Amino acid sequence: MIKIIVDSTGYIDKSYIEKNNISVVPLRVSIGGKEYTEGVNLSVDEFYRLLRETRELPKTSQPSVQNFIDVYKKALDEGYSIISIHLSEKVSGTINSARLAINELQTDKVRIIDSKITTFSIRFLAEHAAKLVKEGANFESVCESTEKLVKRFYNRFILEDIKYVVEGGRLNRAEGLIGSLLNIKPVLSFTDGVVKPEGISRTWRKAKEVLMKFTESVKSTVGIEKLCVICGENVNEGKEFAEIIKNTLQVNADMLQCGAVIGTYAGPVWLAVGIQSSH
User: Fold this and answer.
1) How would you class 193 by CB atoms within 10 Å of its CB: exposed for 0-12, middle for 13-18, buried for 19 or more?
2) If you compute the radius of gyration of the chain from its CA atoms, what whole number of angstroms results?
3) Count H helices, E strands: the chain?
4) Is residue 171 within 8 Å of residue 159, measured between CB atoms?
5) Which of 23, 36, 172, 193 could be a cystine partner for 42, CB 3.0 to 4.6 Å?
6) 80 Cβ contact list (under 8 Å, min separation 6)
7) Long-range pairs, 181-188, Cβ under 8 A, ≥24
8) pLDDT by residue (tens digit) across 241-278?
9) CA 34 to CA 32: how far, in whole Å?
């Protein structure tokens, strides 16, 4: 038997999690001196309201080693081998906590997969692994196939306000300063596990055009098997953008709204495209 475990930054629908027997190890966020557990005692809407009201930016923290031990041990005791899929090791200590938990449990039945990104990459990897499990694939083949899929991810994202990603330490302050001084919109990517500047746009409308051109380029070069439009509190804008992609490129576009941990660094309003290529 194979169990899939993810962290909360995959923002996978609860119905899918329940249907596929997936377990979630949540990250935490502290706002105004109060700590919340993502997806447990803080809704997405409430988070973005607090984010706009707070004077100090929230702080995030990875799951503890004990959090992982608790989830792993339960699954192991039930006879499962575990595939544990998480956000990039270069931006979070989540994978390190998972490794320490494995060492504590002294087990060889847990395989960690670094998604190299977050959000859509965790979701797509979990969906891929779950499909293989349902088809009856063995543990090693599910792990190997899922790890290979990481190389087929492409992404770009745009931020309305760059201060969150800069003050959160996910982008160099010198790079961020350009955007804040000139009031331009940065185009960023997750590349090799870290946030990387990919360009700038003068306006939000132009930045969205860059996202579209990027998506067109991926389709024309490596093809698109899956695509996800990702956003913060601007859900309606995200839905509209997904519809534009669908009508323009004849590619189905799913929606993914992110909550506290990603929103802490991206801010209230942002847009992204996450793509799984055809090959």
Assistant:
1) middle
2) 18
3) 11, 13
4) no
5) 36
6) 1, 2, 3, 109
7) 185/158, 185/159, 185/160, 186/158, 186/159, 186/162, 187/156, 187/157, 187/158, 187/211, 188/156, 188/157, 188/158, 188/159
8) 999 999 999 999 999 999 999 999 999 999 999 999 99
9) 6
**In b/e form, how buried is each residue of 98-135, taking b as 16+ CB within 10 angstroms?**
bbbbbeeeeeebbbbbbbbbbbbbbbbbbbbbbebbee
For 226, the token pair is 């899956």
**Is residue 65 exposed (0-12), middle (13-18) or buried (19+ Cβ within 10 Å)?**
middle
Question: What is the tens place of the pLDDT at every residue in 120-156?
Answer: 999 999 999 999 999 999 999 999 999 999 999 999 9
Query: For the chain, which residues make up each domain, given as ranges?
Result: 2-150, 152-277
For 163, list phi and psi in degrees, rounded to 5.
-60, -35
- Equal CATH topology for 2-150 and 152-277: no
Q: Exposure of 75 by Cβ count < 10 A (0-12 exposed, 13-18 middle, 19+ buried)?
A: buried
Nearest-angstrom CA–CA distance, 273 and 254: 10
Could you give the CA distance from residue 9 to residue 212 in angstroms, rounded to a whole number?
A: 24
- Reported as a single tens digit per residue, the pLDDT across 202-227 is 899 999 999 999 999 999 999 999 99
- Per-residue tokens: 213: 């051109």
- Terminal-residue alpha carbon distance, the chain: 29
Q: 2-150, what's its fold?
A: Rossmann fold (3.40.50)
- The full length of the chain comes to 279
**Which amino acid is located at 53 in the chain?**
E
Residues 3/81, Cβ–Cβ less than 8 Å: yes
